[in-house]
Amino acid sequence: MRWLLKILLLASLAVILPFAVLPIARAEPPVAQADQLDEMDLIERVSELQDQFDDERISQRDAAEQALIKLGPRALDHLDDPSDDMPLDKTERLARVRAKLETLAGRAASQASIVTLKGNLSVEESLKQIKSQTANDVAIGADASADAGKPTIAWQGKPIPFWSAITRIRQEAGLTIDPYAADATKLRLIPADPATTAFVKQNPAVEATTDMFHVQVTRVDAAKNLTHSNLDHVSLTLLIRWEPRLRPISLKLPASSVKANTSNEHPVTVLNPQSVLATMIQPQIPEVQLTIPFKPVPRDVDQIESLTATIDATLPGRTETFRFRRVGKLPPGKKITRAGATVTMEGIDKNEDLFGITLSLEFDEELNALESHQAWVFDNPIHLEDAQKKISTPLTYESVRQDNNRVAVTYYFADDPGERTLVYQTPAAILQIQSTVRMKNIPLP
Fold this sequence. Notes:
The chain has about 450 residues and is of the alpha+beta class. The protein has seven helices and 24 strands.
């Protein structure tokens, strides 16, 4: 059995590998017992436990259900789909396991990654361990000299957030984040410019970490309007980065959440408390900038002593795979639900030499993740797969309709769907989290 599973896995990986670089692929922090198993061992273990659902003894079926849950969210990829010939008890148990693991996956996706480093480690080794523990792709930049990864850092073996570890490495090794790494799934560190290093020693960076975000003040400007004095203002520009494993759909900062005080405890007021600060997230750029405008501050005030603000983030949950077997034979309206997402095969139309398959994606909650300006959904991987695992990708697609929580897309294939399986991947849940950032000693111009 074991050798057969390994052969099947290797064959599957050979087919699916071209899709691994698509933007939708998302890494997750390692979770639970599945951390200790490689992929082939995990597949075999999940298969064994699912077979145990057929045991005549209830105690054995109960034990298998709990063991599957303990494997953690990675087991989700290998759970059987319900079928008409499956016993009701097995169907119900698989549904309970899936629901529990989906909850755990959502929880993991909405929390900061934690790392534990111990002993004297080089920068290079520290980054390797951070990558292994968090699934965040971090390393020294390819163009950096070999010496960049050699400085040694003494770690105490205490659990710390991902961004706290990265900040310490940057500060102690004289490194900075490469803004031109050209891939949102990776974070690369490079030696800081000597002039910048000298400046930072005299003017420490104003930065903070909060949950899965790193926030830094990059600019403070004072503006005087010579025609409308009520538009005079002081503005703070925040650079917000997130862990490379994440793909935020949107980030917003309600002006009403901003609280700031000067050194003499005089409050600093935002220019428009009813506004919501937001900006488009570019798929290949793992950061955004938001500017907070304040009413003018007296010229004798030299700094904002404290500032707090709340980041409202919309994040995709775990990516699920939806399989429509013999899609060409299915009646329109066939639905598959995973977590909070439902994918519906709405029908197939032949358009000259192409076959148009229309899929709709709908989420249980209206979180505005599918608003017209949110294009992430069109990056969801999709392909047809025949019995020999040969795949066919769509030549093009067109959006049929789109609103706040539902989108329909027609994908055009050159091959007849017929007996093939349609494979579609998408985040099966949309998460909304709030993260409070606290900063101190922000200098004013």
